[in-house]
Amino acid sequence: MALTKRIIPCIDVDLDDEGNAAVYTGVNFEDLAYTGDPVEMAKKYNEAGADEFVFLDITASAKGRETMLDTVRAVADEVFIPLTVGGGIRTREDVKETLRAGADKVSVNTGALERPELITEGARAFGNQCIVISVDARRRYDEDGEHYVDVDGESCWFECTVKGGREGTGVDVVSWAEEAEERGAGELFVNSIDADGTKDGYDVPLTRAVCDAVSTPVIASSGCGGPEDAYDVFENAGADAALAASIFHFDEYSIADVKRYLDERDVPVRL
After folding, report:
1. Which one of 28, 137, 174, 212 is most buried, by most CB atoms within 10 A?
2. pLDDT in tens, 117-155
3. Sorting pLDDT into bands at 50, 70 and 90, what band is 205?
4. Is 14 within 8 Å of 57 (Cβ atoms)?
5. Which domain, by its residues, includes 67?
6. Catalytic residues
């Protein structure tokens, strides 16, 4: 029997001008606009049939501050599905405190790239299933990569970025995914800087390149414009889960709409 594919709403959270947690939505990780209250949105998605829920503190790493754990606790009180929290997690103690605040999993990007041993430490201490490695990938059309794919007749590789896509690292995404898996990551969360917020569809070549390289479950993120895009990334890239934000935040589609579409096309989902 095929494993059930997951539909996961995500909120990008930052502090507003008054220091309160708020959800923001943008395009290509820029031009962020206020979208709503994180706790209220968490409650909404829990009731709407989401399989899991992702809370990303989008400026914690860039600003060098800790994750907003009080807000995480409030969100955890409203969701009864697996909750993944990311942003500003750099140490084993950060992982511990985030899990204690109510997260079921932690999503780590910058902290793991800076010190890959964090993956191993976290997996050993809390279990592989708790450690999600987040990758903010962007396409590069030069000769500095290790794994190349053909995209619309051009050869490109995918680079890991940090600080919300603002800084490149020179690290090849596929090589990093392989290393993260070897170190004990229980899941890979693959974001596309190029597709983020565009609603033009997931970056299928990126997702497929990672899925082909690892056996660890892969969450596809960035670019979902509707149910057909979720179908595309499941069928043509092999993703295990599809994450979306804008289409749900602005009520363009419901989670039920996406799942019905997939079910009608024989994609296994939890209805």
Report:
1. 137
2. 999 999 999 999 999 999 999 999 999 999 999 999 999
3. very high
4. yes
5. 6-264
6. 12, 136
Return the DSSP state at 80: -
Domain count, the chain: 1
Tokens representing residue 180 in the block: 């993260």
Query: Residue 35 is encoded by which pair of tokens?
Result: 């979208």
Q: CA angle, corner 224, sides to 165 and 78, nearest 5?
A: 85
The CATH number given to whatever domain includes residue 16 is 3.20.20.70
User: What does the pLDDT read at residue 64?
Assistant: 61
pLDDT tens per residue across span 22-66: 888 866 556 677 788 999 999 999 999 999 999 998 777 666 656
Which DSSP letter does residue 149 get? E
Residue 44: HSE in the Cβ half-sphere, 13 Å Cα cutoff: 16
For residue 271, tell me if it sits in a domain.
no
Q: Report if residue 270 sits inside a domain.
A: no
- Taking Cα atoms as reference points, which of 1, 2, 5 lies closest to residue 239? 5
Interval 212-240: pLDDT, tens: 999 999 999 999 999 999 999 999 999 99
